Amino acid sequence: MEQQDVLPFEKSRQKQKKGYLKEVRKNLPFLMMALPGAIWLIFFFYIPVLGNVVAFKDFRFFPGGFLDSLKQSEWVGFENFKFLFSSSNAYIITRNTLLYNLGFIIIGTIIAVIIAIILSELRSKRMVKIYQTSMLFPYFISWVIISYFVYAFLSPEKGLINLLFFTPETGIDWYTQAKYWPAILLFMGIWKSLGYNSIVYFATIMGINPTYYEAAMVDGASKWQQIKHVTLPQIIPLISILTILAVGNIFRADFGLFYQIPKNSGALYNVTSVLDTYIYNGLTSSGDIGMAAAAGLYQSVVGCLLVVVTNLIARRFDPESALF
């Protein structure tokens, strides 16, 4: 009896295995297309995770290479993490990192959704492509190049703004006046990513079933009412998912934006110093790799926890808007 029970089970397993192999052969071209990306993820994301042990060591270079240096470096536990929390600037860099990212998430999302809705209402497809291309172009420009354009506007001596709106006596020395830079950095960060974000929302809006709008028009809904009761509810799940992912990076700042645009001016550190630039300046001045690794690990762990917590909150209100 036992042998008779085992045979059907073995046949079922063989059948499942054949079905699995059949699916692999069927999707082999797609799997081969995904292979380079998978290899890239393994080499640049998963293998480097093992290097997080550097965050717990007083890392020093020895002649035997990285692995030998890792073995011989002294274990210091959580001493490297004190670099972030014991510093007198810990409050400033944490405040700046959080507030700037909150501004990018909230203001950037609102503007991107508005632009996407406006583009979806345009009748000329040619104009839509022109607007999308012009807005997407800054996304592919390096912050280094953008910093020169910004300097052309804000240069104290020959900047366009000082030449047009001020006299040589009343001109503003932009790179020493900290009060202007929160608005400048928020504007530049949103401006650069606006095209990409709006296209994501635009694609979602264009995928909404037209019958929803037809039913709304039959009921006498105005254009605003169609946007309010059809468009926005349809894109809320996407907004929620992208916001959850953005919250995961709330302790990370765009290094190019906060380092290149203000020219790393010391007079502006109170409003431009964020976690990433602080780590970079600390690493270049002290050369302590262990402290930099500790900061990176701290950012990753906190980001992961924030994603989980934010996802749980979103799932509680609307399961369909949660990431997982």
Strand order of the largest sheet: 1-2
Low-confidence runs of at least 5 consecutive residues:
none
Give the end-to-end Cα distance, rounded to a whole number of Å: 44 Å
Name of the top-level CATH class of the largest domain: Mainly Alpha
Helix content: over 70%
3D shape: flat
How many independent structural domains? 2
CATH superfamily of the largest domain: MetI-like
Order of helices and strands: HHEHEHHHHHHHHHHHH
Could you characterize what this model shows?
Helix 5 (90-121) runs antiparallel to helix 11, helix 6 (125-136) packs antiparallel against helix 9 (181-206) and helix 14 packs antiparallel against helix 15. The protein folds into two domains: 2-75, no CATH class; 79-140 and 182-321, MetI-like (MetI-like fold), CATH 1.10.3720.10. The mean pLDDT is 86. It has helices at residues 2-26, 28-46, 66-72, 82-85, 90-121, 125-136, 143-154, 160-165, 181-206, 210-218, 223-248, 255-260, 269-272, 275-286, 289-317, and strands at 57-58, 74-75. Strands 1-2 form a two-stranded antiparallel sheet. The protein is mainly alpha-helical and 324 residues long.
List keywords for this structure.
flat, 324 residues, mainly alpha, MetI-like fold
Short description:
The chain is an all-alpha fold and 324 residues long.
Secondary structure elements and pairings:
Blueprint: H1 2-26, H2 28-46, E1 57-58, H3 66-72, E2 74-75, H4 82-85, H5 90-121, H6 125-136, H7 143-154, H8 160-165, H9 181-206, H10 210-218, H11 223-248, H12 255-260, H13 269-272, H14 275-286, H15 289-317
Antiparallel strand pairs: 1-2
Helix pairs in contact: 5-9, 5-11, 6-9, 11-15, 14-15
Organism: Enterococcus phoeniculicola ATCC BAA-412
GO biological process, one term: transmembrane transport
Main location: membrane
